[in-house]
Amino acid sequence: MKTVSGAQLTKFGIGTMRIKDHHGIQHGLKHFNVIDTASHFRQELIPKAIRDREAVFLISKAGFKRKDHGFESDISVGFLKQELERSLLELKSDYIDCFMLNHPERLMPVHGTRTFDLIQEGLLFFEEMVQNGVLRSYGIASNTIGAPRSPDYLSLSKILEHAPPNFKAVEFPLNVFEMDCFEQGFDGSPSLMDLLQHNQIYPFTQRPLTCVIPQGVRQLVETQVDPEIDTKILESFERVTDLELEIVARGTRINDSVCRRECISCQVCV
Question: Are 154 and 108 in contact (CB under 8 A)?
Fold first, then answer.
């Protein structure tokens, strides 16, 4: 058992990305007390599985705005407030144990370092919600916060420079292939795991049985899922990965062109 924000947590939790009913969650709660969801998941199914709200540690997230053909990233305070209110309503709870910014690194190709200002504004809003009793803690879920080699690397050190006091958790991928969280920076700066331990921030990990590598999305376990369904799931992941790489590439090209146009003394890009 571990603790975060005064709560005792089991080592494993229940993910809800693909839930279709509450029965799997109900079964999982016989063994675990952590439920990890998000405002764009089917949160309304979760209360059907919970008998004792105080015995469950609920994580939710916001950052994906629904559009006609998918989602776009948004961590503006107005959108976060809207999604928090919706999460409380769907989860039928007066509070959420930990609320997270969901993958803010997706904004970096467009906003660059301004992304860190948006993150700070979002965390300050969450801190206000802690003081109001709506949240008990908050954090960030990110695929690149532990990956210093990623082109859209989200630096935890930079976030911590102005992080409010109830910033308590970070969620990131960890599996046998994706182990960047243990790597130090190129300049010898601490790894993500070192930073979390030093600052007493709780690590939540995701994607233990599926990895994203340059060759695409790979399952790390054999399943008994219908092969046709399995293929569709993998193809969906591949498309998401391709889109993310394309967004990052476009952002890099834009940044390079701006740099070449505006900088006359730097020889790095020449």
Answer: yes
